[in-house]
Amino acid sequence: MIRASTGGRSLDPDIERAKRHLDRHALEGVTVQELAHVARCSSKTLRSRFAEVYGIEIPRFVREQRLAVARKLLSETDLEISVIGKRCGFSSAPNFFNFFTRHTGGIGPSEYRAAHRVPGNGAK
Fold first, then answer.
1. Helix, strand, coil in percent for the chain, rounding step 5
2. I need a labelling partner for 99 at 20 to 30 A (CA). Which of 35, 63, 73, 86 fits?
3. Mind listing the pLDDT tens digit for each residue in 26-51?
């Protein structure tokens, strides 16, 4: 049974529980082992079932979440880039810079911000 209240795509409540946990904690460095514990299965089983249900591997899902949040914060806030990196789960500004640049085709966070800035939006 798919629970409408969770917007779930799986008939497996354990995988749904792991996905909800991942949605809430993706930027905090959640591990596959932690998710497997939440889903009450092995890491290998979780990886397989998650990819089958959602069509994406867990590490890629986390990367995409981090990148989406970073893009949003860069374009919609005046937060310092190092602060954005921390909010996206990176331990240092260089780690964030390298991640962002690698996943945006060589565009750094400052360049991205300059090109995608939402006019009149400086909210923190």
1. 70, 0, 30
2. 35
3. 999 899 999 999 999 999 999 999 99
pTM value?
A: 0.81
CA distance 94 to 97: 5
Supply the DSSP symbol for 123: -
Can you say whether the dihedral through the CA atoms of 100, 106, 112, 114 is positive or negative? positive
The one-letter amino acid at 45? T
Q: Which residue has the tokens 């921390």?
A: 86
In sequence order, the 6+-apart residues with CB closer than 8 A to the CB of 100 are: 67, 70, 107, 108, 109, 112
